[in-house]
Structure prediction request, 230 residues.
Amino acid sequence: MTSLSRAPRSRILVLACTVMERELSSLRNDFTDIKFFDYGLHRTPENMAVALQKEIDLIGPSSGYERIVLGYGLCSNGIVGVKAREVPLVVPKVHDCISLFLGSVEAYQCESVKCPGTYYLTPGWIERGETPISKYESYVRSYDEETAKWVLNEEMKHYTRVALINTSDYGATDEYRETARKNAEFLSVSYEEIMGSPTLLNQLIRGPWNVSFVLLSAGESITQEMFLED
Prediction:
């Protein structure tokens, strides 16, 4: 892995999940382009690496980009195998996007200790991702109602809290709070609102890409081991 940090005023391309569109778009600057990918890649992690690699393979030195930055965590190993080509690759050293919304791995770990059975929601997840209610509605379209309830209950049986991450100025409104509360009531679990932090998302766009990121030179591939604790 390279030890490169961000060069001043270098152009970068960010490839990110659409659930972060609201937050990342608010941080965009004149040196950053962002392409968002559909949330559906999370349902089929084996397709995530393929979609990202296809885009990465199109970017060469003539593109003017000095770095490609992924707005993804390890995501159930969905990005394992993705290879940096001619342009270096930067990846946040997180297991999923919850750390990005909360601002650090440590903040996520703290919440996990406080309440390990938490289903996290953000404005983007509510708009473009999944909620327990939307999952149930999807199952009803595939199964009968009784089977749909059983499938959802099995999937959600370890959750004891729904937490809405308030991503500050571009975050939680009463509409999102109401949706999150309804999902908590639907699961018969507690509801809580947690303040997020733009720290990691801001670094994703602007750097510095320090120990919170994995930096890959041309030819290097993402491995699961890169995300293990040092």
Remarks:
- The chain is about 35% helix and 20% strand.
- The mean pLDDT is 90.
- The two ends are 14 Å apart (CA to CA).
